[in-house]
Design a protein that fits this description.
The chain is of the alpha+beta class. The protein has a domain of 131 residues: Roll (Outer membrane lipoprotein wza fold like). It has seven helices and ten strands. The strands form two sheets. It has a five-stranded mixed sheet, with no helix packed on it. A hairpin with a 5-residue loop joins strand 8 and strand 9. The chain is globular and about 55 Å long. It starts with a helix and ends in a 7-residue tail after the last helix. Pfam families: Caps_syn_GfcC_C (PF06251), Caps_syn_GfcC_N (PF20616).
Amino acid sequence: MNKVKEFIATIIIFSCVQHQAISQVVVKVNDNTISFEENPRLNQVLDSIGLKQNWYWQSSKLFKLDSEYAEQKRDELLLQLNAITSDADSVEKLQTQIKGWKLATHMNAVIDYDLARYHRSSNPLFESGKYELVVTKRPTKLYVFGAVDQPTTIEYDNTVCIKNQLKQVNKTESADRNIVYAIQPNGKIREIPVAYWNHSCLQVMPGSQIFVPLAEHQWFEQNKRVNQLIAKLAVNRIVIE
């Protein structure tokens, strides 16, 4: 009888430990790692840092570290880049850039401490797993990559049109001269006209990635598809100023 009781007790303890492991949430918030034995809401994750700085919540990003989605998409994209036969040098540069990215699955969530505290709809419950939360003050840079001699950063200036800011960037011969893609910190992708004859003055969010795509026109239809995949993958890129 005692052995039966011991066996039942062992099962109960094992079940509790197993449940605790399943429900555990680990979040890296900038340089600090926080563990939760029970699934927290967003406000609980932000409690430790929410009031310490004048955070620029619009540029905050949440990534799930234990998801394979982003890595799978990177592998698929690199295979598609291998199939492009025009301008092998530019394609090789793109592949090198993409291979060097730190990736994790971007979570489509609005990160804002005040909203999370006072509006339940803006205070989601974290599923079990490992996360990285990037919270910054107002960013001062834009991150330029793609069909360029070297990926680079440029100072963000909200008084200058983005097409004028990009004049300091050296594009490759295969770069598209008419558009760039802006990958905003909130995960939204904008296609922005930058042709010399286009007189509209457009700006982007601070902290955005600016992707200079491969030339898109009727002779390079495959390029447009690949460009869009690159922009979508860049949403999952962890960039920290």
